[in-house]
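Re: that chain you flagged

S.,

Sorry for the slow reply, it's been a week of failed gels. I finally had a moment to sit down with the sequence you sent. For the record, here it is as I used it:
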Amino acid sequence: MSLNTILNVATSGMMAAQTGLRVVSDNIANINTAGYVRKSIAQSNLVSNGMGVGVNIDAIKRATDKFMAAASLNGAADSGRTGAIATAMDNAQKLFGDPTSTTNYFSTLDDVYAAFSMAVDDPSSTLLRSSAVTKVEDFLSESKRITSSLSSQITDTDNRIGADVARVNDLLKQIDALNVDITRAKMSGADGTGSENVQSGLINELSTYMNVQVSDRANGGVTVRSAEGVTLAGNGPATITYNQSGPANGYLTVVTANSGGQVMPFYVSNGEIQGLLELRNQELPSLSDQLGEFVSRAAEELNRASNAASAVPAPNRMTGKDTGLDANTAFANFTGKTTIAVTNGSSAIVQRVDIDFGAGTMTVNGAPGPAFTNTNFLTQLNTALGGTATAGFANGELSLNATAATGGVAIVDDATTPSSKAGKGFSQFFGLNDVIRSDGYSPYETGMVATDPSGFTPGQTITLRLTDTEGSRIRDVQVAIPTGTGSMQETIDALNSRNSGVGLYGSFSLGAKGELSFTPNGATPVTLSVVEDLTQRGVGGPSLSQLFGVGMSERSTRGGLYKMDPAMEADPSKLPFAKLDLTVAAGVPALAVGDGRGALALAKAGDSITAFANAGDTAGSRKSVLTYGADFSGAIARKADSATSRKEAADSVKTEVDAQRQSQEGVNLDEELVNLTTYQQAFNASARLIQATKDMFDVLTGII
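Prediction finished late last night. Pasting the structure tokens below so you have them in one place:
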């Protein structure tokens, strides 16, 4: 071997040792740097003509563990998803208060019943009446506050999803751009581990937002794909978009780098974005929907009691709620009997009209009166009232007005065959003596049947969005109100059309109480929401989604639409604490000041068994308002606790996986010191070999 060859061998060894020293030094310097992956050198011997001629540095590599890295990314995604849900559910739980506390939200309804109960013994007490009004206002105010806060959470979640998606797009651009640097370094034999570490950190952050799959490219860098295999980075960055269409469920779409601008549905199954989507489209609206159902039924039972009672003296004017119906439809489909009594200043009955809806007849002061149908009911009622009072119907509201300034109007159902429509008596259906009023139409039981006219203007449209169980959009369907006879059945048929409606995924049906509900097909469970509703029932009337509560957005806001009757709020003496006595003789007061039977009925309203509809993820059931409230309170606490448990479990897994990954990829100071000593000795040995070769050259030169 020539001296030149020996010198080259020694030089390559020195350069290799020097590179090793630099790598070790870099490892030691970054021992506390988060996300830093330990580097090592890959070297091989140089051979020429079967003889070793030195050493070559093939590459500087990161000591990555692909399995642990993948597990770490999955752990981060799961932690991101469960963390988002747990935080939101904990905030929601705080809105309702501690279920074990006597000051939580549900206790405010208990206070309402307690206030009415105290008024039973002294129904004429102004103080007790005012206290009852205050307690009702407190309950409704708290309901409005929580509903508003949940709506704000949904809005905040929308904003967070938008911000997260923007950050993901930024990360994808950076990850893809670093591929260029890494490939250039690999092709030139330079150290590209710095860029790889930065890229790895970006991928780690990306995994907290969504679950991804990462694979190495042959020429350096990585390819990032979604759970379904959509390429997000590697051959150009993809662009993800969060599509929000007002109250409808939001969804994601993606445009990949090589798709020519084609927009495709995008699905994520884990990560913070998926958790936020679940909150936005399912958890928070469901919680708000169930709150709305609870408040609606609590108000309904209080109104059931108030409409069966009367103030003393009876109110001079009774104005009902907006039923959303025209007069002909509103007066149709009643059964049973009811009595409308007009009283004088002494609360004695001066005109009594007994209405038999089954027979279609009226009895006036015990004598046969006019017959009626739903189309002429109002006219015949005015005839039967004989000028002592007048009945009117406008904008969906029924009103009764006593003619005399000191006169009053009271209504009571027959004891054996009470009037009924959609499960409510005549007075309650129209809300003539409601203690609680609403600006909406909940609980959406219209009393309509399939043969009733729908009342919606033909040609007007409603756009429905169908999403799958994971929140991904399936399609948007625009349904037009059909022309024809205009029956409710025709509108339902249009909604259920397989070509232009939702028939491929489910069906709408009209229930026994006139409620419109959507049932998904068992094979393809879907969720329905409303993108846009341009329908209108009559002139200035409600839309289809408002009248029937179609879509979670409409239903999830109803809990904040209730308020105390303004007249009773201004004057608590108008609270209906008495009941009309039809058995008294002519000229004898039919309403007594000390009568507390109406107050007793109001106090027991929470114990009345009522039918709760499907709300959120809770199936419909028959139970009392108080029982439903207790179950609802427990469900909220369980959801929050379960979400926290899942978060803690996911965090524990992530911590353990990260620790194991760090043990594989992190810097071990003892190991690096051993390597440092090894490379130092190798460097010194190569240096001594070079010095020996130099000495030999000097000797040869001296001989020559």
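What I noticed first: The two ends are 20 Å apart (CA to CA).

Talk soon,
D.
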